[in-house]
Specification:
This protein is an alpha/beta fold. It folds into two domains: 248 residues, NAD(P)-binding Rossmann-like Domain (Rossmann fold); 54 residues, no CATH class. The protein is 52% helix and 13% strand. The chain is built from eleven helices and nine strands. It has a seven-stranded parallel sheet with strand order 3-2-1-4-5-6-9, with helices on both faces. The chain has a two-stranded parallel sheet with strand order 7-8. Helix 1 packs parallel to helix 2, helix 4 packs parallel to helix 5 and helix 10 packs antiparallel against helix 11. The longest helix is centred in the middle third of the chain and has 27 residues. The radius of gyration is 19 Å and the shape is globular. 43% of the residues are buried.
């Protein structure tokens, strides 16, 4: 698919981050876009910005949906068909995701399950819901967002990352298996797995809001335990200092990232144009991919972490 003008794209998690930037770049080319997100306010901003720079006649529609709930994605698909008066779509970006549920051993199960169900269930349910509309297009492409944590299940020493990593591994495997399935049963539909490194998005703040119900709510005890496990001295820190540390982490994740969400969206769309099924996003993603492939048995050793940190600039 070399040209997005006149196409119809569906984007999950379109309220912020890479989802928003995909919407902005697609609509600028004359692609009609349907967004879902849990935040109507964030989607309204995406819609306003997209419509301000889109060619006349380009439409942007929004729908509030939690991608971890299948019935809400079915309703989203029905709304897209109704609102746009269409029996088909051309592009499906399964982009929605949150972080959390780090430890299966010593973590909150509800947060673990929610993270896994958003990051994996959202891809599965969305693909199920929109496949009938994709099948009726003359050409179509599914783009599933995994992560570097879809082939390297870690954030570094002393930091369990099980829910997110398990989900992103599932997304990667599902997409690879889907290639053969589509080639046999719907050859006009292509698919790609996107594996970003550190991208400057609002995922840290958004995840906290979804998992706790508030952008500012912080499980201080859990943060203390996590920092202590990494060797930090937290005994003298007040609760407010812990909260400040968490807020600073979220700011730095967004502001100090080596790649912006807009740059990532450009890489993804270029990958679709080039019909690449495997899209690494960011130099850090390329470095980690090469390191894991070269020495998979050492991928979780201190020596590997040191080499990774040197090659990517990550502090692991």
């Amino acid at each position: 698919m070399k040209d997005f003008a006149g196409k119809i794209a569906v984007i999950t998690g379109g309220g912020t981050g890479m989802g928003r930037e995909l919407a902005l770049q697609l609509t600028a080319e004359g692609c009609t876009v349907a967004l879902c997100d849990v935040s109507a306010e964030n989607m309204a901003e995406t819609k306003a910005r997209a419509e301000a720079h889109a060619p006349q006649g380009t439409r942007v529609v929004t729908f509030v949906a939690d991608v971890s709930i299948e019935d809400q994605l079915k309703a989203f698909a029905a709304a897209v068909a109704h609102e746009l008066q269409t029996d088909h779509i051309h592009l499906l970006f399964n982009n929605a995701g949150i972080g959390g549920g780090g430890s299966m051993v010593d973590g909150d199960r509800a947060q673990w399950d929610k993270t896994f169900n958003v990051c994996w269930g959202g891809v599965y349910y969305s693909t199920r819901a929109f496949l009938p509309l994709l099948k009726k297009a003359n050409e179509a492409h599914i783009v599933n967002t995994s992560s570097v944590n879809g082939f390297w299940a870690s954030l570094g020493p002393g930091r369990p990352h099980t829910a997110y990593s398990a989900a992103k591994f599932a997304v990667k495997g599902f997409t690879e298996a889907l290639i053969a399935d589509l080639a046999l049963n719907a050859p006009h539909i292509k698919c790609s797995v996107v594996m970003p490194g550190h991208i400057g998005t609002e995922i840290v703040t958004n995840s906290r809001k979804i998992l706790s119900g508030s952008e500012t709510a912080v499980d201080v005890d859990a943060v203390r335990r996590a920092l202590a496990a990494q060797g930090a001295k937290v005994g003298d820190l007040t609760d407010d200092q812990i909260r400040g540390f968490v807020a600073e982490q979220a700011r730095r994740f967004h502001d100090d990232a080596p790649m912006t969400a807009a740059e990532a969206a450009t890489v993804i769309l270029d990958g679709v144009r080039q019909d690449r099924w495997r899209i690494l996003v960011g130099k850090d993603a390329e470095v980690i991919d090469n390191l894991v492939r070269a020495q998979p048995e050492k991928a979780y050793t201190p020596e590997f972490f040191a080499e990774l940190a040197k090659g990517t600039g990550w502090r692991v």
